[in-house]
Every structure is written in C-alpha cells, then in structure tokens.
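A brief tutorial aside. Many learners find it easier to grasp structure tokens once they have seen a single protein encoded end to end. The record that follows does exactly this for O-fucosyltransferase family protein. Read the sequence first, then the structure, and try to relate runs of similar tokens to stretches of the chain.
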Amino acid sequence: MEVRSESEVQVRSEKVLPLQGQVIQRTRLKVWFIRVCSSILIWTCLVQLIAVWELYQPRLFSGFGGYTKMSVHVEETLPSPLPRLPARNYTNNGFLQVSCNGGLNQMRAAICDMVAVARLLNLTLVVPELDKTSFWADPSNFDDIFDVRHFIASLRDEVRIIKRLPKRFSRRYGYQPLEMPPVSWSNEKYYLQQILPLFSKHQVIHFNRTDTRLANNGIPLELQKLRCRVNFQALKFTPDIEALGEKLVRMLQERGPFVALHLRYEMDMLAFSGCTHGCTTEEAEELKQLRYAFPWWREKEIISEERRSQGLCPLTPEEAALILQALGFEKDIQIYIASGDIYGGERRLAALRVAFPKIVKKHMLLKPGELRHFQNHSSQMAALDFIVATSSSVFVPTYDGNMAKVVEGHRRYLGFKKTIRLDRKRLVELLDLHHNGTLTRDEFTAAVRQSHEGRMGQPVHRRVIADKPKEEDYFYANPQECLCDSKTCDDLFGPDNSTAVQ
C-alpha cells in the first residue's frame, strides 16, 4: 500500500483547492444568470399581460355598459361610461391637422367633430391647435387646458392621435400641407366624396377653421356616439383645472343649493351682436368701434332694439334679476356668475345684487394666489366656470351661445339636471309690457312661468329643420343618441315628443 508523505498531500491539496473554487464560482454565476433571466422573463410577461388586459377589458365588459335610461329625478348619479367602438385595424389615409377657432366651448365641440371626421376617413389626427388670435388672445395650448395623455389614450381603439406631425411633413423641411376650411354643417358624404380623395395627392390637410363643420343630424349613429365619447369622456381638463374647479363646487355646495347664471353681458358679446340696450351713448359708441376693429365682426349698421325684439340679444343684468324673481328663485339663493367681466362693472350688477345679495364670483371665493396661474388665460378661466356650471343646482344662461349649449348637453347627460332655456323673444315682450304698466307684477310672473314650463331641460327630441341647420337644435345641446338606447328612447322622451321636422 502506497503511503504518501505529508508534503505530497499538502501539494496536491494546494492544486485541488483552486480548481474547486473555480467550479463553485462558475456554479454561482450560472445560478445568478438563471435568476436574472427568469426575473426578466417574468416581468416581461407581466407587462404584456397588463397591456393585453388594458386593451381588451373594456370590450370584455362591454355587455355591462351601454346607453341606459337616465333618471330625471336623480341628478347626482353619474351615467355609465359610453362603450367604445370595436378596435380597428386600418390603413392610414393621411394626416389631419386642425386649428380650432373661437372660445373654449366652440373649440371643444369642434374637437369632437374633428375626431369623428378622422375616424370616418381613417386619418391620423394631430392634437388640435387652439385659437390664439381671437378677441380673447388666449395663448393656451391644448395641453394647458385638456389632459392630452388621457385624450390620446382614451381614443386609442378608435382614432390614432399624435402630438405632432412626422418630421418629413414639417414646414421646417419645406413641406406645405393643403390648407382649407371644410364646408359648414356637412354630413359624412361630403367628407367621403370631396375631402377623402384630396389625401391621395396631399398626405396632410390642415383645416384652418373647425366651427360647425359637421351636421347636427343625418350622421351615422356610431359617429354621433363617438362625438359624445370625445365630449363626455376623452376631453378632461388638466388636473390643476379639475382640482380648482372641484374646490369651487365644494365651497358653493357647503353653503347650500346654488344657481349658475351665465350672464353673457360681456364686452365682446355686446360688440359682436350690436346689442346696446341699457348702455350709455358713450358705451354704445365704444362697442361699435370695437366691432369695426375686427373685420370678421363687421357688418351693416346694427339697430340694437330690432335685434333685441327678435330675441337676439343677451339679457341685461337688470332684466336677469326680474326674470329670476319671476321664475320663483328666493332672495337668499346663491347666484354664481359664470362669465367674464360684466360690461359696465358693478354699476350694472347693482340691481341684481339688490334682488339676490348672495352673488359670488370666482375671485370672491378663491385666494388671489389660486387664480394667479389662470389670469390672462380666458379659456382656462372659462373651464373653471364650465365645471361649476355643470355641477350647479340650476343653470340659467342669458344667451344661447356655445357655452350655454355645451353645458346644457352635459347636464342632460348627467341626468337631465335643470337648465332653464330662456325664451328671450317672449321675455322681451313681457318685460316691455311690465315696464310700461300693461302687466302687473303678478301677471308678469305668471306669464314668465307659463312660457317656460317646457324649457327646463326635460328630455326632448332634437328639433330638425330641413336645410336650415343654424336654426335647428344644436347636437351638443341635446345629444339624444347618447342619452338612451333604441329600446328606452320612446319611454324617456315620450310618444308625444317626437322629432319635429320643419
């Protein structure tokens, strides 16, 4: 039997130990590598599962959504989300740029229309540009007012939306898109037959005006519902605007019910409409000069009293006070003035304050620092008023402009919350008869209430007037296609309240 010396054993051990260390080190590296690869694989699978879930879960649960009958009596119940259209796999026909014109709510409606047009024509929509050159000169961009990430993500299954054009189509590189305003009040045939062929030659088309470019009626049902999805769900205000608007609403609600009065007695409206009833001679001349300073407002000489008698002027603050009293509002009701600066200032608000002492405005409720960020941004200030107006106990607009119409439509969607649509032509007659002593106060009150019994925001079908789209009911004021489904519409609107075609 071979006997090794102690020195031989020591030498062999010294040779074996490094080899064993290397084996152990390689084993540890393999284990570490396997763990890292496994972790990466698991996280990749998890991310993919989350993405698939987000993509498909709205459709998995679409059977629980839909258009349900709104309760006229329950105002605070939020409606069910409007179901998305099926996700599409389509060939992009081109890029659509749009420059919205007008105030906040005119632009809001235009954005909804342009999303519908982009989907109809299989176009990629560039995030809309907002008006910066109008009377208000608001420098706000889209993402200063609306949550652009939510806007893009919430419509991802229906329309491809990008923040900017690809570089090859940039003006910096010499590319010139086709610029044009589409024809007003057009239906889908116009866009399919006249606009879509233009994209075969021009890959990018820029609509430089977007107000009322899509018809109220005669539009496919799926496009009407898409207009609602954009309006009610995709167009969310930025978190800062939402938070401050909700704070205003909480402060008002803590004090009790409140009326949002959209008192459109502002300088721009009076200049545009030529309405000077109640103004001094100097004020009337100032408004005239302002109108002539804007070429797109200029027209032949306006006779203010004729327009007023036709119901084409906003009510004055003094007239609004009398009407609110006649409609039964108590002296201690809160009145939130949802508008900009009233022309004539506090002097013109005096009669309204006497009738309703609890008049409040944004700057009376909030600290100066809270509004500083929104100063000189009229559209952002209008967004705050929009939030308050849609949440108020009652909404009363003194003029049927874009804000009045869009807010009315939102309040219908939120459960037909009371919106008093003033019949100004009838009211002017009654006001004049009351002022000249023909009608007593009680007779005036009775006549005002009787003439507005059916104008409180109840469910009604939209009025259609053939070949006169400007005179028919505006889609966004009464988007009836989005307030019920075909089985519940008759119950909701009633058999005697069918669409009137004139």
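Self-check: The longest strand covers residues 258-262. If you spotted this yourself, you are ready for the next section.
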